[in-house]
Write a structure and sequence with these properties.
This protein has 116 residues and is of the alpha/beta class. The chain is 45% helix and 12% strand. The protein has a 3-stranded parallel β-sheet with strand order 1-2-3, with no helix packed on it. α2 runs parallel beside α4 and α3 packs antiparallel against α4.
């Protein structure tokens, strides 16, 4: 039997106690499905760093709060200017790299396959 833990929509409600618990709970795979922090990037990175401390195989799938920011979403939905969009794309890529570093040993996933 394989044991999975699926954690989603953390929205900043994660502590070091949660990290310790998931490290010791005996899951074969922890799957985190997005919205780590609230609307503040610092919140997302803080949660990502704590997730990086989980001592169990963990996959992290970012949500809409996790790699983009409100201004880029508004630009995409309303403005649509490719010139303006380019500035936001580079910011989003930098945030993705920061998020990858924060989760440490655990893969930051998207539409990918992973062996358990």
């Amino acid at each position: 039997m394989i044991r999975f833990a699926v954690v989603g929509d953390i929205h900043g409600s994660w502590t070091q106690a949660d990290t310790r618990w998931f490290s010791r709970a005996g899951y074969d795979q922890v799957i985190v499905v997005g919205d780590l922090g609230g609307w503040r990037w610092a919140s997302t990175l803080g949660i990502a760093r704590m997730l990086g401390g989980i001592d169990a195989p963990t996959l992290v799938f970012p949500g809409n709060h996790d790699a983009t920011h409100a201004a880029s979403l508004v630009n995409e939905a309303v403005v649509g200017s490719s010139r303006v969009r380019g500035a936001f794309v580079s910011t989003n890529l930098a945030r993705r790299r920061e998020l990858e570093e924060a989760v440490g040993p655990h893969p930051l996933c998207g539409y990918t396959s992973h062996r358990v």
